[in-house]
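Key result, reporting period 2: structure in, sequence out.
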């Protein structure tokens, strides 16, 4: 059996029961999940995804609301520009694709803020196409099993895409199954720091396991600090604006952080990113809130 065959068989018996993987999940649901899952663990994404899809089951439903509502619904998932990206995608789909998620890879890539990984993931997982879908988990599995090395590089390269595509079955539907299976194996078994090799379905063909090499000491990548960073200050400012029904005076923002310079820098960054809009008389609002009744 090939790596793909072994991994698919394992996935069929062990895959997590996630809502965006269900047969009745729409391409829009898959796209929303892929954007939410970027830099955010599944345990935090699942309830947020359910709330999002209940409120906006289609791109048209989201496009009909201002972007401020997407930011509000995003809550504390982090990296809120992703909410803006989803709203912009919904608007583009209504304008150019009849309110539907396009199935063509080039059309997916043309959507606002959709990169190579997300476009390939949606084409594969929503439409059953044959594309190499390469994230950190997939790169780690292929690097260990096929190349015999303990860790992959920090970023996906063209060589990674070629290596994964070579492992995919020729059938599009089975290739799509292999893609999600590789990803799940890396997430649950072939983890970065504590791989469960004795439970791995491909242990017998893993070149890294056969080599006897140990994992390198220390984390594979330096964890990002949050406390005291501009990201934390941006989150505090957004929290104030999310709970407001209209523009907020600067004085209410000023109380969230004592460092005047850092607070001003964080606020300016939110404005530059399009998440926050300055309003007359020194007030600020979430993007699109000035268009709301009473805003």
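The corresponding designed sequence is given below.
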């Amino acid at each position: 059996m090939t790596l793909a065959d072994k991994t698919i068989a394992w996935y069929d018996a062990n895959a997590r029961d996630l809502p965006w993987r269900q047969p009745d999940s729409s391409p829009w649901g898959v796209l929303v999940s892929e954007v939410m899952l970027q830099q955010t663990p599944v345990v935090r994404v699942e309830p947020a995804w359910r709330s999002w899809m209940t409120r906006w089951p289609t791109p048209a439903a989201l496009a009909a609301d201002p972007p401020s509502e997407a930011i509000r619904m995003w809550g504390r998932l982090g990296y809120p520009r992703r909410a803006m990206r989803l709203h912009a995608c919904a608007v583009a789909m209504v304008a150019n694709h009849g309110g539907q998620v396009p199935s063509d890879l080039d059309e997916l890539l043309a959507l606002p803020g959709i990169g190579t990984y997300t476009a390939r993931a949606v084409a594969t997982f929503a439409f059953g196409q044959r594309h190499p879908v390469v994230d950190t988990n997939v790169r780690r599995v292929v690097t260990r099993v096929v190349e015999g090395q303990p860790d992959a590089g920090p970023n996906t390269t063209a060589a990674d895409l070629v290596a994964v595509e070579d492992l995919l079955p020729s059938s599009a539907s089975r290739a799509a199954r292999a893609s999600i299976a590789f990803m799940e194996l890396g997430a649950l078994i072939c983890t970065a720091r504590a791989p469960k090799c004795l439970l791995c379905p491909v242990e017998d063909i893993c070149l890294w396991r056969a080599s006897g090499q140990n994992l390198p000491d220390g984390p594979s990548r330096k964890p990002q600090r949050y406390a005291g960073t501009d990201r934390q200050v941006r989150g505090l400012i957004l929290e104030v604006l999310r709970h407001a029904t209209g523009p907020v005076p600067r004085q209410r923002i000023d109380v969230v952080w004592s460092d005047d310079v850092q607070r001003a820098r964080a606020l300016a960054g939110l404005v530059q990113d399009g998440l926050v809009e300055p309003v007359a008389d020194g007030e600020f609002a979430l993007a699109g809130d000035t268009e709301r009744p009473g805003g």
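The chain has three domains: 27-125, 136-211, 230-291. The first strand starts at residue 248 and ends at 249. This case is discussed further under Risks and Mitigation.
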